[in-house]
Specification:
Blueprint lengths: L3 E4 L4 E6 L4 E4 L4 E8 L2 E6 L4 E6 L26 H8 L17 E8 L5 E7 L9 H13 L4 E8 L12 H7 L3
Parallel strand pairs: 8-9
Antiparallel strand pairs: 1-4, 2-3, 2-6, 4-5, 5-6, 7-8
């Protein structure tokens, strides 16, 4: 997506990047859309130079049509598979880097534990590109929400870990290609 200048058409809740704090952007705020991936938009605020993220549900506030990038609907009689979990994680994006958390190499471990009656628990360990990033809890919640939307998932736990420390070599070939490295 090319950068697009917008003016907020209504008050809108946003998350400040990288702090991870919630702010209310007033109607009339000028912004530039810098990223529109998954089910979020990253906006640059020229007045402060900062970045914020808004949810797709608030797309109308920036003159966009909600993409409804909600998780894919599965049939109710399906049980979640590891492939389905990976597909959901590929829809979670770092708000500053236009690459999903899987291709960034942020997912360290994924376990799908079977429960009775086709139910399951999903446990994920992930990291971030920088330890000081306040967006960690927000990104982890995004991943958890997407996983919990899968059929039969009774619980999803996404834990942010720091060992081993992330480095660019952990990115997938696709991630490196998108960033033009290695």
């Amino acid at each position: 997506m090319s950068h697009e200048d917008v003016k907020l058409q209504r008050d809108c809740e946003a998350i400040r990047i990288p702090q991870g704090t919630t702010v209310l952007l007033p109607q009339g705020t000028h912004a530039r859309i810098t990223q529109a991936l998954g089910d979020t938009y990253t906006l640059q605020l020229p007045s402060s130079g900062g970045l914020v993220r808004i949810a797709d549900k608030d797309a109308d506030a920036i003159g966009q049509t909600p993409r409804n990038a909600a998780p894919v609907a599965y049939t109710s009689n399906q049980s979640a598979t590891e492939e389905m979990v990976w597909d959901q994680l590929r829809q979670v994006y770092d708000p500053e880097i236009p690459i999903n958390v899987v291709d960034l190499g942020l997912i360290y471990d994924l376990r799908l534990e079977s429960l009775p009656q086709g139910r399951s628990t999903v446990l994920v360990q992930m990291t971030l590109t920088a330890q000081g990033c306040g967006m960690g809890p927000t990104i982890a919640r995004d991943a958890q929400r997407r996983i919990q939307s899968l059929p039969g998932v009774t619980r999803a736990e996404v834990q942010v870990v720091w060992d081993p420390p992330w480095h660019p070599e952990m990115m997938s070939a696709e991630g490196k290609k998108r960033l033009g490295v290695g």
